[in-house]
Amino acid sequence: MPLATHNAQAFHFLVDMLETVEIGLVILDLDFNIQLWNGFMENHSGLTSTAVREKNIFTLFPELPQEWLKQKIDTVVTLNTRAFTSWELRPYLFRFSNSRPITGTAPYMYQNVTISPMAEPNGRIERVCLMVYDVSDEACSRLELEQANQKLNQLNKIDNLTQLLNRGAWEETLHQEFDRFQRYGNDCTLMMLDIDNFKIVNDQYGHQTGDKVIRHLADAMRACLRHTDHLGRYGGEEFAVILPETNLDAAHLIAERLRLTIADAELHSINSRLQYTISIGIAPLHAQTEDAQQWVRQADDALYGAKHAGRNQVVCSLS
């Protein structure tokens, strides 16, 4: 085969490969003018190779991170070495729509990018090549897995019946607030509350009605308390609330408002109407409080005092 024919075939093969490969190929000169723009880039940008050739890439794509990309290219040229960036650090370089059917819900194409120096025969670096990889499938799968794990982790912290924090998650918050108090000394008060005569409710109306009472109390707590307060189901019919930035007097007013809300409420169950009450114990956090467990005991002792005094009332810790 004549050398000219062989070279022509090799050139045709190379051009065909550049046009059909599933990687974006962009060659820039050092003034950031486009020298090559392959089929992948045409298909996803909507701009033909003829339309972009010798045009400045930042003029055509003003949304590109200009300073970042210039710095990357300068490093590649100066050190004569490749540079990489992944979708985890920068989701995309070119904001292309995502056309993958599997990951069609993604807002754009996730991309990994490699920037390579291109040496002339004399060894000088006159151009760089940007290789753009569509990694949408990988990225979306990773993100979906992370979201699923986050949701599972969140579900592990929630009490199924009330949708409040379960005891384990609430106790984590308790220790965090105790540590914050030790650092900053801001007011913080703990409130423990319990449904009065809950066994009688279960025995007389059944456990389904008992669950309805527990859910009603959880809803009332959400309505009466602030979004900054930490609400948890401590166990059974007992609940616990941390009131940050709240002194004893303010906590007492909050507790009384909740108590009265419950006492005035009326629940409807099968063929009956039901009212119930709660008892509440509150304990402010003091510098003398040794640990979070002691803080809970102080509030629990106050709750026991409210029960012992006749129920349906608020008692403050004397410690």
TrEMBL record:
Its EC number is 2.7.7.65. Its cofactor is Mg(2+). Gene3D superfamilies: 3.30.70.270, PAS domain. GO terms for molecular function: diguanylate cyclase activity. GO terms for biological process: cell adhesion involved in single-species biofilm formation; negative regulation of bacterial-type flagellum-dependent cell motility. It is an enzyme of class 2 (transferase). SMART domains: GGDEF, PAS. It holds the Pfam family GGDEF. It comes from the Bacteria. It catalyses: 2 GTP = 3',3'-c-di-GMP + 2 diphosphate. CDD domains: GGDEF, PAS. GO terms for cellular component: plasma membrane. Residues 186-319 form the GGDEF domain. NCBIfam families: GGDEF, sensory_box. This is diguanylate cyclase. It comes from Oceanisphaera avium.
